[in-house]
């Protein structure tokens, strides 16, 4: 009798245990990760993978599971890996990293992809851009402009593949611009273009004309006045109060150098640019200061870098911080929604506070609430 009872008990226990496992698996959030784990961009992918594992450790929940797959930075391999993730029953995917790898993902209709790209135009319907897009940055710039009652702003936009994104960001942020100019990043052409934008030749001629006028005048103080004028490069003001330069790295520095050459100084006009990820090389460009830009929260970024360094003994790239936050965002959405409806949550209005800042979610789109900084006297200072 006891033997029969034990057999029945074990059979019931096994049935219950298997059922519990099945239920547990159903309630788990399976997160796919599409990043380059081999090839020329493998270091980026490996750091993103480490950051997601760090996020899992910090969240400390059995409800999340990561499934990494290699894209090899190739659109066809990205599609193959996405199909594999779909077969595994993944609920949502973090990645891919690069915009070029998105082109075939509309073929995997069951999945939503949280791509690291900051481009928002011409995305497949199931891809959400999670990068720091132009609209997020220009919303923050607009706040600064309004606070400082800046009346006339011009945009300098390079002739590169993201110029349409910038123009869309200007439109969506409803930032008031006086004029928009496109420029060629080739240094041999750039200065001539900046001269034209700033009316440099006219202002230069104004100076020459004024010196000539004084030389031919009866003014008793003309020698002193001429000496003062000879210290100048131009006479006359430019017709704007601030300049937004949609550029980065050495190209940004070239634009600022050309502005300085044409006698337009950040001491007199607001020089504003886009998110520079706290590029320390700008600290040494004292002639270019002060310069203003929107960015993620600096302290949070530094705290994350320290945590990542302790855990992995290496400095993280900025995509690592974004991937860390995306795991937290998915966990947050999984608490508020059924596991099989996490994808739909991106159509609803939600806000999530991560290390980068606040994610604003609506209509299958993510914008970020950013901080605003200036570099002045070799230091990065927070404005708001």
Main attributes of the structure:
seven-stranded mixed sheet, five-stranded parallel sheet, alpha/beta, Rossmann fold, 384 residues, 11 helices
Describe the structure.
With 384 residues, the chain is an alpha/beta fold. The protein folds into 2 domains: 154 residues, Response regulator (Rossmann fold, 3-Layer(aba) Sandwich); 171 residues, 3-Layer(aba) Sandwich (Rossmann fold). Helices cover 43% and strands 18% of the residues. It contains 11 helices and 15 strands. A 7-stranded mixed beta sheet has the order 7-6-8-9-10-14-15. A 5-stranded parallel beta sheet has the order 2-1-3-4-5. Helix 2 packs across helix 11. It is elongated, with a radius of gyration of 28 Å. The chain starts with a helix and ends with a strand. About 5% of the residues have low confidence.
Short summary of the structure?
This protein has 384 residues and is of the alpha/beta class.
């Amino acid at each position: 009798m006891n033997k029969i009872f034990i057999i029945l008990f074990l059979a019931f226990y096994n049935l219950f245990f298997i059922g519990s496992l099945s239920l547990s698996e159903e309630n788990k959030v399976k997160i796919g990760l599409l990043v380059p784990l081999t090839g020329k961009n493998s270091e980026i992918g490996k750091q993103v993978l480490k950051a997601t594992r760090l996020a899992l450790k910090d969240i400390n929940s059995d409800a999340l599971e990561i499934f990494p797959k290699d894209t090899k930075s190739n659109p066809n391999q990205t599609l193959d890996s996405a199909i594999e993730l779909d077969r595994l029953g993944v609920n949502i995917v973090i990645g891919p990293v690069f915009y070029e790898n998105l082109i075939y993902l509309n073929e995997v209709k069951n999945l939503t992809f949280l791509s690291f790209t900051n481009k928002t135009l011409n995305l497949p319907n199931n891809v959400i851009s999670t990068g720091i897009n132009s609209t997020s940055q220009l919303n923050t710039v607009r706040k600064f402009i309004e606070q400082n009652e800046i009346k006339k702003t011009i945009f300098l936009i390079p002739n590169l593949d993201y110029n349409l994104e910038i123009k869309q960001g200007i439109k969506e942020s409803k930032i008031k611009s006086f004029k928009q100019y496109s420029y060629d990043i080739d240094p041999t052409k750039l200065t001539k273009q900046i001269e034209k934008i700033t009316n440099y030749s006219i202002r230069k001629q104004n100076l020459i004309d004024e010196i000539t006028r004084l030389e031919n005048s009866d003014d008793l103080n003309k020698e002193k006045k001429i000496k003062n004028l000879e210290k100048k490069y131009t006479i006359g003001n430019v017709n704007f109060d601030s300049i937004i330069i949609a550029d980065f790295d050495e190209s940004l520095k070239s634009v600022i150098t050309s502005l300085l050459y044409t006698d337009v100084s950040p001491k007199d006009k607001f020089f504003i640019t886009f998110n520079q990820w706290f590029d320390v090389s700008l600290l040494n460009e004292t002639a270019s200061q002060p310069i203003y830009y929107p960015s993620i929260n600096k302290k949070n970024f530094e705290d994350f870098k320290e945590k990542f360094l302790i855990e992995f003994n290496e400095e993280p790239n900025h995509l690592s911080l974004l991937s860390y936050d995306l795991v937290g965002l998915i966990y947050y959405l999984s608490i508020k929604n059924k596991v099989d409806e996490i994808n739909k949550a991106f159509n609803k209005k939600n806000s999530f506070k991560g290390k980068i800042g606040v994610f604003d979610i609506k209509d299958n789109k993510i914008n970020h609430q950013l901080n605003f900084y200036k570099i002045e006297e070799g230091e990065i200072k927070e404005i708001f």
